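Subject: mismatched residue count in predicted assembly?

I count 506 residues in my input, but I want to confirm that the predicted structure covers every chain. Input:
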Amino acid sequence: MTQTDDRHTTVDLSAYPISEATAHRLRTMTIGHVIDGVVVGPGSSGTLPVYDPSTGRAVASMAVAGPSEVEAAIASARQAFEDGRWQFLDPLDKERRLRELSRLIAVHAEELAELDVIDGGILRVYSGFIAKFAVDGVDYYSGWPTKLQGSIPATPGDIVVRATREPVGVVGLIMPWNGPSAVVVAVAAALAAGNSVILKPAEQTPITAVRLAELALEAGIPPGVFNVLQGTGDVAGAGLVAHPDVDTIAFTGSVDTGRRIQAAAAARVKRVSLELGGKSAHIVFEDADLDAAADATAAAVWGNSGQVCTAGSRVLVQRSVHDRLLERIIDRSKGLTIGNAFDPTAQIGPLISADQLDRVAGYVTIGRDEGAELVLGGSRIGDAGYFHEPTIFAGVDNSMRIAREEIFGPVMSVIPFDSEDDAVRVANDSEFGLAAGVWTQDVSRAHRVPRRLKAGTVWVNTYQAVYPSVPYGGVKQSGHGRNLGAESLDDFLQTKSVWTRIGAEP
Ligand code: ADP
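Triage response: the counts match. Full output below for your records.
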């Protein structure tokens, strides 16, 4: 790989508890686009600083795409698709190369995890989980190229029709900042289906995308097949959505941006799949194991400081156990150590940005003004970095904004309910439908309630479990299309019916 720009980060990395290999990488790498197998540094559109959310300080600078970089990345992906360098490669060969990518991610997992802590502010232990998920997800999709098949529909005897499943073409993947290395799983799904990809990472977390594309090249995935475009949503992201040479967009992010993308894509009748936000109901019935439920309901909102699409931000509790559960949740939440994402004793890390911190603080004010009872937290911590206390509102009514809007921060709304019908009604009374949790020891209820919940995922007596073969996505305004599993491939394939007249039967 050649580097067309040699700008290196100048930050003092000696204070960072990272491996020498990661420090060297960060000192020497260009946080740029990857176009046609080449890392491209800043052009006329310049750079943006990359902030460490734990300190609020800039640690590096990244290239920002202008229209010419957008054009170049799309041209590279289009050319790679049309000449068949990947699309028409022997499926077994595709599998070997994707498997090799998984292996290389595993080899570099520590480096990727450390880099995700630096720009994502993700607790080191959690970023290790993300890197492992990247390995597993790519491994899972590496098995698919030889398993894709079409069908032969029943037709009159003088005709044969082959309904083949073909790649869509050039896929634009527009991704968020809350699990930077995990985005390679979506890349692998699109590649397993035979497409070329342009990955647009979030501007807050540009670093590991470059490394992932480099590892893909090392794994034998040809140049131009996996490109990276760095920059802002309104230029790089919107540029992919608007361009006629990008055939489909897979987006993960906020509802507002998803809505804008779907509207912009409509102008070209372009396919989109959207994995958006949620306001997931975590329902605890009176027959639940309250200790297990308290552990899970707390972890489901404090994990990654609540910056997870499936955060169980509405805790619905049966009134008869309300006080006992709330006491246990507070117990598990009040002593948590909040600190630098690299600190091994930290249990809660920073939010991604100053904007996000303001947003969370704004919702705490809204909750207070709406008359909810603040029973824990409520404040920003320190003035360096973007830290916020775990915050619990009790006595929340489902009509309040803190129960209806996605906060994407460590804020839990606790809502009492009386009956199973009541719980289902409140859980479903939301614009969102990404996920839900149910805690009960009644086996009939454990089957009955999930059937009635309007959500793409329901976890029973567990929460936020993920596995690469299990489809993941939302209903209602949480989006459409599915990440993970065989169903994700549907977003990256299209069906062609080939009719052949073979003459009348003798
Ligand atoms: P947040 O507001 O938390 O940053 P977004 O949903 O806006 O979350 O961002 C997710 C991804 O969408 C990022 O990669 C961002 O750059 C991109 N994005 C933002 N606005 C647009 C847009 N109008 N068109 C396409 N992509 C966008």
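The chain has 16 helices and 23 strands. Marking this ticket as 'not a bug'.
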